[in-house]
Amino acid sequence: MKDFDDRKYVVTAIILVTSFIYLIRLFYVQVIDDSYKLSAKNQALRTLVHYPSRGLIYDRNKELLVFNEAAYDLMVTPKQTKGIDTTAFCEIVGITKEEYIAKMEKAKSYSSYKASVFEKQIPSDQFTSISEKLYLFSGFYGQKRTLRKYPKPIASHVLGYIGEVSLSRIKKNPYYKKSDYIGIRGLEKEYEKELRGKRGKKVLMVDVHSRVKGSYQNGAYDTMAVHGTNLYTSIDRDLQEYAEHLMKNKRGSVVAIEPSTGEILTLVTAPSYDPNFLVGRNRSDNYNSLVANDSLNPLFNRAIDAQYRPGSIFKLVQSLVGLEQGVITTETRIKCNRGIINCHGNHSNDKLVEAIQHSCNPYFYQVYKRLIQPGKYSNIFKDSEAGLNEWHRMVSKFGFGQKLESDIPGISGGLLPDVAFYNRWYGEHRWAFSTIYSNSIGEGEMGVVPIQMANLAATLANKGFYYTPHLVKGIGEDFSIREVFTTKHETEITPKYFDPVIEAMSAVVNLPGGTARQARLDSIEVCGKTGTVQNPDRPDHSVFICFAPRDNPKIAIAVYVEYSDYGGLWSAPISSLLIEKYLTGKINDTEKEKRMLEAKFLTIYEK
Amino acid sequence: MRSKRNIFQNIDWFTIVLYGILVLIGWLNIYAANYNEDEVWFSFSKNYGKQLIWIVASLALIWMILMLEARLFSTFAYSIYALGIAMLIGVLIFGMEIKGAKSWFVFGGISFQPSEFAKFGTALAITKYLTNLKKNAGQFKVRFQAIFILLLPAALIMLQPDTGSVLVYAAFVFVLYREGLSGKILLFGLGLALFFILALLLKQTSIDVPFGLVMQGKLILIATVITICGFIYWFFNSRKRKLLVPLTIAVVMISSYVLSVDYVFDNVMSPHQQDRINELLGITFDPSGAGYNVNQSKIAIGSGGFFGKGFLQGTQTKYNFVPEQSTDFIFCTVGEEWGFIGSFVVIVAFVTLFIRLIFLAERQRSSFTRIYFYTVVSILFFHFAINIGMTIGLAPVIGIPLPFFSYGGSSLWSFTVLLFVALRLDGERMHIL
Q1: A174 within domain boundaries
Q2: Are A139 and A225 contained in the same domain?
Q3: A37 close contact with B: CB closer than 8 A
């Protein structure tokens, strides 16, 4: 049978070829294709997340505004729950059998082998009694989370709130994982990166039944959670609380700023809500009820987002620009000619200080006319264009018509109309002073938000400069601060021109016949200006801006009370109460305080 | 005494060392597959502990085989075969049913799988039959008798049923081929398998042809065959007359075979066999069902990477993600913990063993020894190819062990006996049996 000897080569070849194919395949599976490594990780490794506690938020005196409270997410791995006593379980957790089934189905639809949230944010006192018996129920464990808590139910719009990160956010930012918390509004949103801290993790090995078998590679991939950075805000907790108290039953806002630094002492939007309302398990229900069922729209942050016409208060700016441009002097008198534009009160030929004090409309009509149509060009259209350009440039230096670079998300810029605006509106060379004269007294197309008006008060107090109003004066224990908040913004107005304006503001409050007599304080010289935003068929918005004391001002305030009455009646006394509270710590005129507290202007919204 | 010293002088130590290495590596991997940090590092009640007992027992078995007279195996070849057949019949009557198959005798705590012994008996019988033959294995009568020797135990095992063990008998084709079976038969078998796979793969395929007709996958296949045959006919223009008949027969046979594949697949094969073939061919993908084992196996092997995760570090291995880890899927442990390097070493070790055995076979003066060596190589190679092939998705999932590696006394002893009988015979190569 030697004939077939050569066949040993065939047999050998079959063995070699088969083995060679296997080696190629093994090389592909083991070295080239990474998908199996990933699958192995997904199957055999479980990553337990340690959530960091979020940074705390303090006021300017290091009083707590926000702290954390432990809560527990009850996690479940459906595959491991075989044979548990569901009746007993439901009793301990406090749910019905139907809820149990529904929650279990939801968890299974996510994964049978991986843990997902069964019941979220169980308060720690409740969880303590659950956890004692949890060992009886395999497949369940508690995942520690932190909830925000607020020692006082104030400053909800300043602080904002957090919530579970949305899927679209996760897609955009890979840092976030499902069921992470993220700041959604206010400081929580603005300082999210600082506040959130750093997640820690523990990588565990599990077997095919998802039972934990130990730490992966002796914890080489484990990390500790890092506590979030604390924020020290410029808010004065007591003043904020008092301001919110005064604004009860009113719609409007209060913004108080320390002029020398731009630090916001108080930022009130009324009506508001209790920040504790948007925490925990009922957050989304509560949120929806705030959105859907409240005609007062308490989630709208009026202090930074509501636009009003500036009204008479704008005459202060017109005076300063007029003086700087030389179209008037402190001695310039203008007849109160009430033909084109109306006026009120008993005056006829005021000079500047008196005109501000009396809020003389024809006076500022004239000032604005001289600014807009100075007569540089014989063509009034060209003249107005050049005039408006110059005026717009100077007024915008006060922070109008632009979003202040503050640390408040959602801030609005208001509207300061410029040449382009009117060209769009009327067409090029189809408008002149006579078209836009309403701006002279702060009516017309202008729009401001309360924080800009408070900033104006601070700029007046500083005689010509401001620091961008901001909420955070220190990030973390080294008290760092964003550079933009230490940048001085200069107006183009020469400081001496502020003197007559401040003189007039003092007169408004302190002299007999001033429109803001109710803002007068015995011990402190308050300088202010009332404003009245007229509303057709409805009461006016009461507006007041002021600063105090006149020398070395410590506080600048803007108060808006919507649909109440003229500026002097409500906003001015509220402002003075805040000044007194802030500067002296107590209130002398309790009558005034009582009257403000009792005032209610919400009936107009009832449907 | 003299004969004893002879056998230790003449025996092939190279093969023995390879055997030792494979058994040792195998045991380490069984240890890893059953290792548990939470328990004591060694226990005789665990698989690795029992396997160690089987290994020690194998040494006794080896000693016995080497002490026996070599000619006994030739003399009692048919008797051993008959004993094997008797046991296969016996197991059908007295056997214990485990996992739906009557494959085991259980005496007290010890269980024994007669199909493993029958494999050895069949190897001896076919060897003896072919040795005594004056003509080559290509002849029809010879073919028929040889096939009967093989089919008898195969049919009995089929009754258990244990498909995996039955398929091992296909391995004897290599022996028959070496001894003269026409290569055409091998090619014919290959062709059957090829068309079977093609017919299944093309089941879901169809193409649009003119006149709004749709051509099914099988018809495409038949059309292709006809076209190729037509082309061959046209190309060998000069020998037209000779070619016409065989080509026509080929076309008719292939066509009817292709048309019958569906029937065989749907009616002869069991559902789980259908699933396994569908998974293998990629017709279905069901990693949590029929494809679970293979998918987990590939994950374990693939996650090993180039260098592996290290001894006892395989998460897939330790934590039971792969089913049948100690037995049929022991190669996963090699792949995961020792990486490509480990896989390479194991495959090279096996190939070295096979080639060494072929070398030993070809140096024999005795036909009996040569043929017996080929039966050993065939059986070992078949196990090796199917077992490793299934763990990496290149062969269907057939539950047969990896020689010397897989946990289990019966299989270890059976492979040990097969191999050492060959080595014992080789030790006598200077004598004429």
Answers
A1: no
A2: yes
A3: yes
- Euclidean distance between CA atoms A242 and A519, whole angstroms: 17
CATH number, residue A455: 3.40.710.10
Instruction: Give yes or no for A221 touching B (CB within 8 A).
Output: no
Q: What is the pLDDT of residues B348-384, one digit of tens each?
A: 999 999 999 999 999 988 889 999 999 999 999 999 9
Give B226-247 as a DSSP string.
HHHHHHHHHHTGGGHHHHHHHH
Instruction: Indicate whether A323 and A209 sit together in one domain.
Output: no
Question: Among A266, A249, A154, which residue's Cα sits nearest to residue A559?
Answer: A266
Per the domain annotation, does B81 fall within a domain?
yes
Query: Could you report the per-residue pLDDT of A209-239, keeping only the tens digit for each?
Result: 777 778 887 888 888 989 999 999 999 999 9
B225 pLDDT higher than 90: no
- Show the domain range for A387: 237-272+297-605
Q: What tens digit of pLDDT does each residue of B142-174 get?
A: 778 888 999 999 999 999 888 888 989 989 988
Count how many domains chain A has.
2
Task: Examine the pLDDT at A87 and tell me if it is beyond 80.
Answer: yes
Parallel/antiparallel/unpaired status of strands A231-233 and A57-58: parallel
For residue B130, tell me if it sits in a domain. yes
Q: Are residues A130 and A246 in the same domain?
A: no
For residue B102, tell me if it sits in a domain.
yes
Residue range B88-96: mean pLDDT, rounded: 89
The encoded tokens of residue A354 equal 């008196």
Domain co-membership, B139 together with B23 = no
- Let me know whether B273 and B298 are in one domain: no
**Poorest-pLDDT segment among A270-279, A420-429, B314-323:** B314-323
pLDDT in tens, A306-321: 999 998 999 999 999 9
pLDDT, average across residues B47-61: 93
Is pLDDT larger for residue A239 or for residue A602? A239
Q: Tokens representing A521?
A: 């304080």
ipTM of the complex: 0.90
Residues A331 and A471 in one domain: yes
Is the predicted pLDDT of residue A340 greater than 90, yes or no? no
Residue of B nearest to A22 (CA): B389
In sequence order, what are the beta bridge partners of A123? A71
Q: How far apart are CA A221 and CA A205, in angstroms?
A: 12
- The pLDDT tens digits for B71-81 are 899 999 999 99
How many CB atoms sit inside 10 A of residue A222's CB?
Answer: 17
Chain B residues within 8 A of A203 when measuring between CB atoms: none
**Same domain assignment for residues A215 and A318:** no
Same structural domain, A247 and A110: no
For the ranges A350-354, A363-367, B207-211, B308-312, the lowest mean pLDDT is seen at B207-211
pLDDT of B293 higher than 90 = no
Together in a domain, A347 and A210: no
Give me the number of domains chain B comprises.
3
- What is the Cα–Cα distance from B143 to A48, expressed in whole angstroms? 66
Residue B197 lies in a domain: no
Question: Do B163 and B212 belong to one domain?
Answer: no
Which of the residues B127, B280, B299, B368 would you substitute to probe the A interface, choosing the one with the greatest number of A C-beta atoms within 10 Å?
A: B299
Give the model's pLDDT for residue B315. 84
Q: Which of A19, A33, A45 is the closest to B351 by Cβ?
A: A19
- Provide, as residue numbers in chain A, all residues whose Cβ is less than 8 Å from the Cβ of B340: 26-27, 30-31
Using DSSP, state whether A270 is helix, strand or coil. strand
Structural domain harbouring B162: 75-184
A567 occurs within a structural domain: yes
Query: How many other C-beta atoms lie within 10 A of the C-beta of residue A202?
Result: 16
The reply to whether A220 and A265 lie within a common domain is no
Per the DSSP assignment, residues forming a β-bridge with A148 are: A68
Domain boundary among B213, B247, B279: B279
Residue A511 DSSP symbol: S
- Does residue A39 sit at the B interface (CB-CB below 8 Å)? yes
Distant-in-sequence, close-in-space partners of B395: CB < 8 Å, separation ≥ 6 = B280, B385, B386, B388, B389
